[in-house]
Amino acid sequence: MNIEHLTYFDNSSTSFPKHQSVAKAMSHYLNCIGGTYGRSFYKRSIEASAIIEDTRDKLAELMHIDNPENIVLCNNATQAINTVLKGFLKSGDHVLVSPLEHNAVMRPLKRLANNINISWSTLPANSDGLILVDEIQNHITDRTKLIIVNHVSNVNGVIQPVKQIKGAAPDIALLVDGAQSVGKEQLKCDMWSIDFAVFTGHKAIGGPTGTGGVYIKNINTTDTLIEGGTGSNSEDIVMPDYAPDKFMAGTPNMVGFAGLFAALNNPLVYNHTQADLTDLIERVKSLDGVEVICANKPENQSSLFSITHNSMNSSAISAELYSRFGVETRAGLHCAPMAHKYLNTDNTGSCRFSLSPLHTTSDLEYLYRAIKDVVK
Questions:
Q1: Main-chain phi, psi angles of 13, to 5 degrees
Q2: Residue 346's domain spans which residues?
Q3: Is the pTM for the entire model greater than 0.85?
Q4: Contact 172, 144 (CB under 8 A)
């Protein structure tokens, strides 16, 4: 093990370390505030409610959203995606998806295909999965109601041209899966006319697990996923018809959102540049037997990439990196078999490296030397 370097390279699973303010805010909520959101009007409850509303305001600022109340807070991005897919799509609808989608999208779509006869097809793309914007219109039918795009792939780090995709199909609703992007890549929801934008709190934003949500541009297009108490309109047996209450049944993860608010107010400062990442990828590409799974062009590359090897499987690479160098990675299919099939790695999986802003050039050099030693 190495204690001189930050050797955690699994930030696509969950970011680590968090800013010290996150744990402090969570402890402060548990020990000093208590109370819950929107249920009472004593001081403790008002302070708790302010955490939720202030968090929503900060998220709106981050994602360039004019109406913060249209941000629905959830337990994670998966719940947020299910909220959209099961609330927006109707029987017989057709969906276009990128070839790099996560199971958080594909499994709900499969259930809907079985239950209400929705169908899907794949958007045209380059060899790295980057959408060919000029060809989108050729794949739209009179039943196409939704386009789904994984903003940053959790397998090869490709950044999709979300603005251009919406511009190519302005009349079709667009769902952006920002689980890997929100907090590090630009997403201007209202300026780009995004209909749905999903985020998670525990990855690039740097907050705790159990936090996430979705921006819904027009709440009247989407039915509720769950129903229950909201603290509002309690005299009615039906859910309120206004945002965000329509979609926020039950008590939210108060301690988690306290931590998320702290993370939003204390974004981590980058210790390396995009050029440093590009240099690392190019050096790893030069190693014998190694194939790097990444964007075809550096300008489309976010801060994660994967590798395969012609004689070592991905699990063995990951295990050797950890046992010999303390480097923590993820190996396998990364809950994205569709992406791996498109990238021709479905039989092998890959060993993934996902960076934190805190990684220094020295950390990246240590990682390169570790990979080089393991695969030689």
A1: -80, -55
A2: 274-375
A3: yes
A4: yes
